[in-house]
Every structure is written in C-alpha cells, then in structure tokens.
Amino acid sequence: MKVSDTNRKTTSVSIKEVQKNFGAIQALRNVSLEIHEKEFFTLLGPSGCGKTTLLRSIAGFEKTTKGEIFFNEENTTNIPPWNKNIGFVFQNYALWPNKSVYRNIAYGLELRKKDASYIKEKISWALDMVELRGIEKKFPEELSGGQQQRVAIARALVIDPDILLLDEPLSNLDAKLRISLRQQIRNIQRSLEITAVYVTHDQEEALEISDRIAVMNKGEVLQVGPPEEIYQRPSDLFVADFIGKANFLEGELHGSDFKLPGNLVIPLQPKNCKAGKGILFTRPESFSHSKEEGFGGIRGRIIQRYYLGNLHRYRVDIGNEMSILLETGEQYNEGDLIQLKVSNYEIFNQ
Ligand SMILES: Nc1ncnc2c1ncn2[C@@H]1O[C@H](COP(=O)(O)OP(=O)(O)OP(=O)(O)O)[C@@H](O)[C@H]1O
C-alpha cells in the first residue's frame, strides 16, 4: 500500500438531542446538528458555552448524559475514542516531551501494527502535509509553539482519520502565526477532503475558514449556517452582537419607517418585518451615504474617524445621543454632515 492511499471513510456526523451534565451544570442542552461529509464545520461561542464538551463528546472523551451521536449510519455514542478512527488536535499540543518528533507521530501507527518502512514513509508524508521536513529527530522543547502544533496536526493526520477534530488549536499562538496556520489547516482539510470539526471562540477565524458555523451560547446551538449568512442574517441579538461589529438602535417600525426616540426616522427598504417595537440591527458597511443635500435617509455628523488601512470607520452622530458606526472607503472629515440610507438590516422584536 502506498502511503498516499488511505482507507479513510468519507464521514458525516449526526448529533441528535445531546445533553451533557456535569453535576448541576448543564454543559449541553439538547444539541442537534448535522455535519456533512468533507465539510469544515466550526463550533463558535464564548468561553463556557459548551463547544469543547460537544467536540469531546463527538470524539468519545465525554459520555453524553442523553442523546446520540452517529458517524454515517453508525451509532458511536458509547464508543471510546481509541476505537474510533479519529484525529484529535488539542489546544496545548499534548506532545510527549520525552519522545522525538518521529516517535510522537509514529505512536498511532505503531498501535495499529504498521510495519517500519510504512511508518517511515507515512511520517514523512505527514510532515510534508504540515510543511515541516527534516525535524524527525528533534524533541518538542526544541520547537516553537507553531511547529509543535504542526507536529500535533501531523500526528493526527498520520493514521488517516475519518474525521479531524480540533479544539482551539491556535489559541496559544501569536496573532500572525494564527492567521497563517489557520489557512494551512484549511488547505490541508481541502486537499484531503476530510470532514473537520473545529472549535474556536474567535469569530474572525471562524468566518474565514469554515464552510458552516454553529454559534453556541449557554449549552445551546443558536444558529447554524455558512459564514455570510451568520454575518449578514444573524438569527438573534446574541449572534448579531457576538459576530463582527454592529449597530443596534431601539425604536419602533411603522410601515417602512423605523422611528427612533426624539422624532428621528430611519427610512428602510420594505421587507417582511413585524411592525412595532424592536431593535434595528445593521453592519457598519450596510449603508449608502453622501454629503449631497437631497440624498435622503437620516442625517448625521461625523464625530470620529478611524483609519483602517483600505477602509475608514466613522462614528456618526444622528442626534438625541445616538450614533451609528459606518465603514466605507469614502473619505470624510470630522464635522462633515452626511445623509445615510440603510441597505441591509434585520429587526429583532423585543
Ligand atoms: N470536567 C468538567 N467538570 C465540571 N464542569 C465542566 C467540565 N468540563 C466542562 N465543564 C463546564 O461545562 C461548561 C462548558 O464547558 P466547555 O469547556 O465545553 O466550554 P467551552 O465553550 O469550550 O469554553 P472554553 O472556550 O473556555 O474552553 C462550563 O460551565 C464548564 O465549566
């Protein structure tokens, strides 16, 4: 068998009404999810929302209190991790400090009784995948954090897992390295066409690399969808606030006018929203705007300007102690009077 040949099974994961209690703590409350084969699926949410518990339940490190987990048609709920063909990458790398890189990566293949020449070739294949050649003899302490995590990824890949599970693998690395390594992880997942479940609390990371994202809070899944959908059409206020920058204005919808306190009105493109009290949600880039009198929309004055490189971010005072965050390539100066129209919005009813 050539090392590039694999017995990997294309795998989907079905999570059915899973609950996990730690004593009185409900870490997962009735979570159901379908993760498709070859998909890069991210569990995203704040600290303590249950994403690691869900990932560890998929792996079998945690026993669920209720519910079932399937890999394809197989019910894996009670199968321990060592009897599943999974690769798991931990936040803290979890390399054996007293074993060389070679021995660290070889371990899973030795357990599977592969012969020495296959192991040697497969390790060099795995190190090629993570772009780390010729470091087989080094020990973990001789490597940087980024290199150690790439060794951990090679160790997870070398056994040809059906599914790759990654628990905040980049959170101990500096910002620049995080960005390059997350792209490398995504490229590896694409080239191997392997199903991956990735845990992070970093929304930017999730938006950049995922096919789909599940946003979690307090043990529940609030929304599942592709990055654009989660960003542009969040299902509730928590998701809208957790992902990216946003404007939230409290008011009342009458026809296509959103009325703010102090007789201020934001005209909206009509869409199917419930009339009455609500919170108008917009992204900072969801406005058309102009200094031209007669442009229409709501009037505002630029009170702060932040330079973002290719973009400008402005704080626009719209009166009555309310302001809007605007992002655009357009140049305005502090003090400029502009008019704004909303091009994309949601209204969350209270
Ligand atoms: N072994 C455990 N014993 C008791 N409580 C636990 C255990 N593991 C997790 N919890 C609790 O379950 C809840 C969910 O934890 P979990 O680690 O899954 O969250 P998380 O979203 O991954 O957070 P983080 O990003 O901080 O790791 C938390 O309230 C946590 O304190």
Write a structural description.
The chain is α+β, with helices and mostly antiparallel strands and 350 residues long. The protein has 2 domains: 13-240, Rossmann fold, CATH 3.40.50; 245-349, Nucleic acid-binding proteins (OB fold (Dihydrolipoamide Acetyltransferase, E2P), Beta Barrel). It is built from 8 helices and 20 strands. The chain has helices at 51-59, 101-111, 116-129, 145-157, 175-192, 203-209, 227-232, 237-242, and strands at 13-22, 25-35, 40-44, 66-71, 74-75, 86-89, 163-167, 195-200, 212-217, 220-225, 247-254, 257-260, 264-267, 276-282, 287-290, 298-307, 312-319, 322-328, 337-342, 346-349. A 6-stranded mixed β-sheet has the order 6-7-8-3-9-10, sandwiched between helices. It starts with 12 loop residues before the first strand and ends with a strand. 34% of the residues are buried. The structure holds adenosine-5'-triphosphate. Adenosine-5'-triphosphate binds next to strand 2 and helix 1.
Summarize the structure.
By secondary structure, this protein is an alpha+beta fold. Strand 12 and strand 13 (264-267) form a beta hairpin. The chain has 8 helices and 20 strands.
